[in-house]
Amino acid sequence: MTESHSFQTRLLHNNHKFDSQTGAVSVPIQQASTFHQADFDNPGVYDYSRSGNPTRDALEETIAGLEGGSRGFAFASGMAAISTSFMLLSKEDHVVISEDVYGGTFRMIHDVLYRFGIDHTFVNMTDLHEVATAIQPNTKVLYIETPSNPLLNITDIQAVSKLAKANGCLTFVDNTFMTPALQRPLELGADLVLHSATKFIAGHSDVVAGLAVTNHPELSEQLSFLQNSFGSILGAHDCWLVLRGLKTLDCRLKQSSESAYKVATYLHGHPQVEEVYYPGFSTHPGASTHAYQSSGSGAVLSFRLKDEAEVRSFSQKIELPVFAVSLGAVESILSYPAKMSHAAMPEKERLKRGITDGLLRLSVGLENPDDLIKDFETGLAYVKARNNLSSVQSV
Ligand SMILES: *Cc1c(COP(=O)(O)O)cnc(C)c1O
After folding, report:
1. CA-to-CA distance for 391 and 386, rounded, in angstroms?
2. Measured from the CB, is residue 77 less than 6 Å from ligand 1?
3. Going by CATH, does the domain composed of 250-394 fall within 3.40.50.12280?
4. Pocket test for ligand 1, best of 82, 177, 199, 205 (most atoms within 8 A of CB)
5. Distance (Å, rounded) from C-alpha 150 to C-alpha 360?
């Protein structure tokens, strides 16, 4: 890969631009599970596809280059990447982890690893003092997600990584919301970057995949061993889908971020909307930290209506966004954290984190933003009309 080229160009012009044997301008999908060994004293590069596969190698090498790491790993899902990385830990180790971490990561730490004797402390990662206080002699990992879900809280990657190094800990960063197009945590001192490639990296709501990238030789060896031991690898066909999605990552994210800013600004000015959370607003908490460590605000925003009844009216009326979990796709996706991503969280915990019954999260896709705004205008007008009607009825 030519490092002198920009990120945008390197998405297309890398070692896998064409197949060295045939010149095919698309990475071949190698479905074989096993590989013939002409000489058992000198095995070939590949022997069995859990341990190594040419299509997966192409994806792993590509993502490593894009994140500025030395080695990448592809897994069957974002959770498989995250869970396998936690296998770096041992009994009696401790993790300091962001309290507004992705629900599946919360579940893994809280309900699974705990049973294996791996302890944790949930902290507000935006508060460095709180993070420092939570570090114990047996702390091995500081785990960050920034911007976080669904309120887009910003954690200072460089400051947390420094704190981790000073205490002999590793820093893991879930970079799903930003992707290497907008944020490269390894360059800021993190040790391991994790992705749900299901989201922006693949980008088309048609594949579930996970990635991990590091720049430590030792961590690479350990992860390679764990990937083969645990076995939750990404299949060849899915690797190809992720590679295909990656080619358009930069232009998809640019367009979606631009539209997200437009939609966020519209929502911010609407009397029916109580609050808008978007890292691109200079008034957003941590906006300057985000601007320092990232080159864009991303395509995800959240906004608050009054209550569940308003969310119900609004979601009944709007037509364009898919109403679903997930994010980072070509089509806009609207989700309702209280009933979807955070449904399992006790109500008190949920409300404490600001995830009220009126909160909606929007991942902006590639529609014309004016069409999205028009759709939202209709939805919000309906909310208002319903409110007027019920206040008339209650008189
Ligand atoms: C979706 C998501 C995950 C989990 O990824 P899967 O591919 O669904 O397993 C992890 N972290 C974040 C931030 C996510 O949005």
Report:
1. 9
2. yes
3. no
4. 199
5. 8
Neighbours of 100 (CB within 10 A): 25
Q: Is 247 a catalytic residue?
A: no
Q: Answer yes or no: are the C-beta atoms of 48 and 34 closer than 8 Å.
A: yes
Residues of the chain with CATH 3.90.1150.10: 250-394
Determine the Cα–Cα distance for residues 52 and 82; give it in Å rounded to an integer: 20
What pairing do the DSSP bridges indicate for beta strands 94-98 and 119-123? parallel
CATH class for domain 7-246?
alpha beta
Q: Which two tokens stand for residue 366?
A: 């590639």
- Residue matched to tokens 């995800």: 300
Cα three-residue angle 66-280-300, rounded to 5 degrees: 65
> Hey, which residues does 335 pair with through a beta bridge?
361
The question of whether 199 is a catalytic residue gets the answer yes
Alpha helices in the chain (DSSP H): 7-10, 54-67, 78-86, 103-107, 128-134, 157-166, 179-182, 217-230, 236-247, 249-268, 287-293, 308-317, 347-352, 369-394
Q: What is the pLDDT of residues 149-188, one digit of tens each?
A: 999 999 999 999 999 999 999 999 999 999 999 999 999 9
185-226 per-position pLDDT tens digit: 999 999 999 999 999 999 999 999 999 999 999 999 999 999
Q: Which of 199, 252, 350, 361 is catalytic?
A: 199
Its pTM stands at 0.96
Per-residue confidence at 247, pLDDT binned at 50, 70, 90?
A: very high
Residue 193's H or E segment, with its range, is strand 192-196
DSSP 263-298: HHHHHHT-TT--EEE-TTSTTSTTHHHHHHH-S---
Mutate to test the pocket of ligand 1, among 79, 149, 200, 208 (most ligand atoms within 8 A of CB): 79
